[in-house]
Amino acid sequence: MIVSEPREDIAAWVGGKIGVEFEPPFTALAHIDRGRIIAGYVFNVWTEHDVEVSLAADRLSVTLMREAFRYVVDQLGCRRATFRTRADNIPAQRALERLGARLEGRQRAYFGDCDALLYGIMKEDFPYGLHTQGA
After folding, report:
1. C-alpha–C-alpha distance, residues 80 and 94, integer Å
2. Helix residue spans in the chain (DSSP H)
3. Distance CA 52, CA 34 (A)
4. How far apart are CA 129 and CA 135, in angstroms?
């Protein structure tokens, strides 16, 4: 089941997984399985065309990936999403690439002990299809 409330619980779960705390305003989506979060997205720092997305997952589903990007396009009105991950987090990089994200840059010492890799995904590059009015 995909849920968007309570946002604070989802943001705390994602933040705990990736080592950050989120300050409002933000929105969030999560995949709940047997009463527990197995994957979550937090959306914050959005502009007219872009939103920064934080992702954590024990298991990613195509359903959640589709819903998250529909949310980015249809609800937030953005054409792209920006992701930042630790340079040493290979599983996260692979997950982002499966989402259709492309490596766009490196931020030195962003996490203090580690560089950040900056990924972006455009709605036209999203591999799981957007069958919505905004696509």
Report:
1. 19
2. 7-18, 62-70, 90-98
3. 29
4. 9
pTM over 0.90: no
| Beta carbons of 92 and 85 less than 8 angstroms apart | yes
Task: Supply angle C-alpha 34, 61, 28, rounded to 5.
Answer: 75
Phi, psi of 14 (to 5 degrees): -60, -45
* Confidence tier at 128 by pLDDT (50, 70, 90): low
What domains are defined for the chain? 2-125 (3.40.630.30)
Question: Distance (Å, rounded) from C-alpha 72 to C-alpha 82?
Answer: 11
Q: Do residues 72 and 60 make contact, with C-beta atoms less than 8 angstroms apart?
A: no
